[in-house]
């Protein structure tokens, strides 16, 4: 799978998760289609996809045995690193610790990891 295809898997899983878990009406930027996603966000999605792919590879697939929370935490910390890469002073919500993320975002992050896993099978 190409890096762009991997990034699209990430983005599509994020959008699906937001639509399922977000309480009420999500911000437009949360569900912006791939074609309209800013370049920095495409790069970040690609990087996180590649981190999950590599993580699964180096664990010889055993990372699939992580709990949903552990999978979500991996996505969250990987995304946080990308926020620091792309923004000098990211908004606090962009770099919040797992325990400070809203439940909908934690669930969505877990869904994203699982979607990436599924795409690699």
Structure write-up:
By secondary structure, the chain is mainly α. The protein has one domain. It contains four helices and no strands. The protein has helices at about 5-20, 40-60, 70-85, 105-120. Helix 1 (about 5-20) packs across helix 2, helix 2 (about 40-60) crosses helix 4 and helix 3 crosses helix 4. The relative contact order is 0.20. The mean pLDDT is about 95.
Tag the structure with descriptive keywords.
121 residues, mainly alpha, 4 helices, 63% helix
Short description:
By secondary structure, the chain is mostly helical.
User: For the CA atoms, what is the radius of gyration?
Assistant: 13 Å
Helix content: 55-70%
Q: How far do the termini sit from each other?
A: 11 Å
Uncertain runs: none
Biggest β-sheet description: none
Tell me the overall shape. globular
Mean pLDDT: 95
**Structural class, judged by helices and strands?**
mainly alpha
The total domain count is: 1
**What's the total count of β strands?**
0
List SSEs in N-to-C order. Answer: HHHH
How many helices? The count is 4
Query: Strand fraction band?
Result: under 5%
């Amino acid at each position: 799978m190409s890096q762009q295809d991997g990034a699209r898997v990430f983005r599509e899983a994020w959008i699906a998760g937001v639509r399922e878990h977000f309480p009420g009406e999500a911000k437009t930027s949360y569900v912006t289609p791939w074609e309209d996603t800013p370049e920095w966000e495409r790069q970040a999605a690609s990087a996180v996809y590649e981190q999950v792919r590599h993580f699964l590879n180096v664990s010889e697939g055993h990372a699939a045995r992580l709990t949903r929370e552990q999978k979500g935490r991996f996505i969250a910390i990987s995304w946080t690193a990308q926020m620091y890469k792309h923004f000098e002073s990211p908004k606090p919500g962009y770099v919040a610790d797992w325990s400070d993320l809203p439940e909908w975002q934690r669930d969505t992050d877990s869904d994203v990891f699982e979607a990436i896993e599924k795409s690699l099978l």
